[in-house]
Design goal:
Radius of gyration: 15 Å
Structural class: mainly alpha
Order of helices and strands: HHHHHHHH
Number of strands: 0
Mean pLDDT: 81
Largest sheet: none
Shape: globular
């Protein structure tokens, strides 16, 4: 439950909150290993949250583990959540090249998961639109927003399309 709460706070928080959540995540992951062993579902959730709220080293390590999990061809719902976390994580980095990779990850998730996981696919497409807008690529943002509105009318992420993703803490800028 703490991981879900941290993820929600990270999505809604100002950037200063990311620092405390990142420090908390690092300790919480160790507690989870002690409590549950290396249960893959728990560790995947910890990595999905850590990829977004962790310090720079934690974010990178979590992304590496999420990519490795995707490469092992997990159940589709697991791959969808991993892809969503990768896109969100990279979109929040300081470097524009990393942010662009976040857009690619988000679009990949949106395209691959649309049929079986439309809510997650819609979140990923909305993430791509916000990240493109944050990079100043208004043409791409409009294209993604238009596609989002056509495919996902009434989607809960529709309200978020005016919000820019928060940059990750621990980066220059």
């Amino acid at each position: 439950l703490d991981l879900y709460s941290d993820a929600a706070r990270a999505e809604l928080a100002d950037p200063d909150t990311h620092t405390s959540l990142g420090a908390r995540h690092d300790g919480l992951r160790l507690e989870l290993v002690r409590a549950f062993g290396r249960d893959e579902a728990i560790m995947t959730l910890a990595d999905a949250v850590g990829a977004v709220v962790g310090n720079p080293e934690t974010r990178d390590a979590c992304r590496t583990r999420l990519r490795a999990l995707i490469a092992r061809r997990p159940p589709d719902w697991t791959a969808a959540w991993c892809g969503l976390a990768l896109g969100r994580s990279l979109a929040r980095e300081h470097e524009p090249d990393q942010q662009r990779l976040g857009i690619v990850e988000s679009l990949d998730t949106a395209l691959r998961r649309a049929a079986d996981h439309p809510t997650l696919a819609g979140l990923a497409l909305a993430d791509a639109a916000r990240a493109a807008r944050a990079l100043g690529d208004t043409d791409a943002a409009r294209t993604f927003e238009s596609e989002f509105n056509a495919r996902y009318p009434g989607h809960p992420a529709a309200d978020t399309l005016d919000a820019d993703p928060q940059p990750a803490q621990g980066t220059a800028g």
